Amino acid sequence: MDFNSHTDGVVRAAVALVNALTPGERRGRExxxxxxxxxxxxxxxxxxxxxxxxxxxxxxxxLAELAARLRAVFAAVAxxxxxxxxxxxxxxxxxxxxxxMLQRHDGEPWHLHFHGRDGSVAADWGASCATGxxxxxxxxxxxxxxxxxxxxxxxxxxxxxxxxxxxxxxTACQNRVKxxxxxxxxxxx
Length: 189
Prior knowledge:
Elements: H1 5-21, E1 24-26, E2 29-31, H2 37-46, H3 57-78, H4 82-96, E3 101-103, E4 111-113, H5 121-137, E5 145-147, E6 156-158, H6 171-188
Antiparallel strand pairs: 1-2, 3-4, 5-6
């Protein structure tokens, strides 16, 4: 299931930023705010865009603030509150002054970018991620954004599966839940 190539990328980038830069829990363990925000932001975005440049520490700090705001969108969708999710995305779109522009680079064909006006890293990624999330929320697949339902995990995901039934951020969390259920059945039987 694809929204379109660039939208898929920026939505996956939103997921990567949230999961790399926001504290909480991950796969049954505490997930603290990273010490090196620039390095964490770089690692997160390189999971989606392998050749992305390294972020500085101040850029990482700005992206961490953005990631916290993006997390709230995923949490609202997971709670079934699309109105709140849409309001949060609209606020980001207004603040970053996102504007669509066709661009061609790195040997790719023309595709849409959604950068903001001031050109800061956080504003540009905020505009792109907010626009990508707006496209998802404004379409028939708004329920494809989620927060992991495994115990002690609050990482976010976008469900791009054909049947749209994803509930976990990763196979590791899915396996943890299945193993716990299997063991519980064994003890009960």
